[in-house]
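Class prep. Protein, please:
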Amino acid sequence: MSHRPAPLVLCYHAVSDNWEDWLAVPERDFERQLRLLARGRRPGTAADAAAGRRVLHVTFDDAYASVLHALPLLEGLRLPATVFACAGYGDGRPLEISELSGGRFDAEGLATLSWDELRGLRERGVEIGSHTVTHAHLTQLTDTALERELAASRERIGDELGRPCRYLAYPYGEQDGRVRAAAGRAGYDAAFGLPGIPGDRYALPRVGIYRWNALWRVALKAATRSWRADRSA
C-alpha cells in the first residue's frame, strides 16, 4: 500500500458571529482557518476534487444565508466554493431541521438563501449543488422517495439557475450503496460525503469544520485528510 496526496474538501454550514450554534463558525475563525489551510495548497473546483486532483475546495451545506458573509474572503483568496441547497426551499425561509440545531429554533440563523441569492452566487462563480429536496434521511427512504429526493432536486436547481446541477451532498452525511447508486442514476457527476469514502466518486470525502474546532484541531483534521491510502498499489 502506498500513499499519495488527496483533495482537501472542507464542509462548512453557517458563517456567523451571532448564531451561537455548533454549525456556525465565527467569521474571524473562518478567516484564520482558510488562510492557514490555503498555504501551500492549490485552489480547485468541485470538478477538480471529483477528479482526485490535489486541491483545496470549500463547500457549504444547507445554503444558509450567512454564507454570504464568507464570499468576500473566498474571493480574496481565490478559493472556489460549492453551496449545496435544498430545492424545496429557495424562498429564504428557515431550514426547520431539529437535528441540525439541537432542537433550538433560530429563525435568523436558520434562514436560507433565496433563488435570487443563489443566482447571484452562481454569477460570482460559486457552484450550486443539491442537498436533496427536503433534507431527508436518505438511507431511510423507500426507493421511490429516494429517487424523487435526488432527481427532483437536481431538476429544480437546474431549472432555477439555468445550468445543470452537477453535484450532490448527502444530508447528515448519510449514504450507503443503495443511495450512492441512486445518485448516479439521478444524473449527478459526483456526490460528496461526510466523511465519505476515498476512491468512491459518489462519496467524495470532506472534512467537517464546526464552531468548537480550535485552529490546531482544524489543521490536524486537514493534515490527516491530505494523504490517502492507495489500495491499488
About this structure: The chain has one domain: 2-230. The first strand starts at residue 2 and ends at 5. Residues 115 and 156 are 11 Å apart (CA to CA). Confidence is low (pLDDT under 50) at residues 229-233.
